[in-house]
Amino acid sequence: MAENTYRALVVRESEGGKFNGAIETMQIEGLPAGDVLVRVRYSSLNYKDMLSASGNRGVTRKYPHTPGIDGAGTVEESGSPDFKKGEEVIVTSYDLGMNTSGGLGQYIRVPASWVVKKPSSLSLRESMIYGTAGFTAGLSVLRLVDYGIGKGSSVLVTGATGGVGSVAVSILSHAGFKVTAVNGLNDESAFLESIGASEIIPIPDPAESAGKPMLKERWDAAVDTVGGNMLVFALRSVKGNGAVTCCGNAGSADISLTVYPFILRGIALFGIDSQNCPMERRTRTWNMLAGEWKFPWLEKLSAEVGLDGVIPQIDRIRAGTHRGRIIVNMQD
Hints:
There is one protein chain. By secondary structure, this protein is α/β, with parallel strands linked by helices. It folds into two domains: 5-118 and 299-329, Medium-chain alcohol dehydrogenases, catalytic domain (Quinone Oxidoreductase, Chain A, domain 1, Alpha-Beta Complex), CATH 3.90.180.10; 132-271, NAD(P)-binding Rossmann-like Domain (Rossmann fold). The protein has helices at residues 47-53, 124-147, 163-174, 189-194, 228-237, 260-263, 279-290, 310-319, and strands at residues 5-13, 19-27, 36-45, 70-78, 88-92, 107-110, 115-117, 154-157, 178-182, 199-201, 219-224, 238-246, 268-271, 302-306, 325-329. Helix 6 links the parallel strand 12 (238-246) and strand 13. Helix 1 (47-53) crosses helix 8 (310-319) and helix 2 crosses helix 7 (279-290).
């Protein structure tokens, strides 16, 4: 291999306990041990990347560190018979970008068990428009479908303007579901309508339902992406024998809820673990995202930046002012 250095976002801790990121030149030989060396062509930004870049020890224990829980590119070297040089692959989840040098570097070295062969009907760039957020949305929809929530059913999506939520709205509407989207702090009604939401509601006021163990039955199912009060609202509002998926905690990791939605309406609550999802379900989801769930407005969800533009975008995620998906072109 001719190259021995690469560019990466590196987050370092200062003496005052502050964390600062900068683009640095790194040595490939300094990457962790692994079966497959991947030249990253595209990455993307996620909420967890912001946490890692901010020094959150629950995400990343040791610094300096390169975040990036997503990476798509070509195999540069492989010690695994399952992958060959030049093959296009996707790496998301597991420990990538958390305690293993991540996709916001132009190279990653990972175990072969983390690597997914990219479906032929999906480009590397498109795979990162999805990224972990889109993959998580896909897992959520797949769980509802497997449970028996069929086309034509009504589905509530919380955090609908975020990365997971916007892809969930898009998949569901494209697949024939009736989607109610919860608008964010900023009015994004036009955007939500453009990706298929048939109804848009504001963030519910918790005070209006205080003391009510259940609310009026409104939806057949829900995809919750934020946790906290929004998850409680969804569980109280889904119709009998419906289902709710839960994949995030940006709102809160805590919920205050009685058992009544479960024992009086038979609501099923499914946790979505995209990080350690079994490979069979992982590849099945990616194939669905590349196939019948691939909606024609995929590009509309994304804004593209180069590696040098990553830090301002992380600041936007921290401030809660981002929309849709931010992909990173790592090829500069």
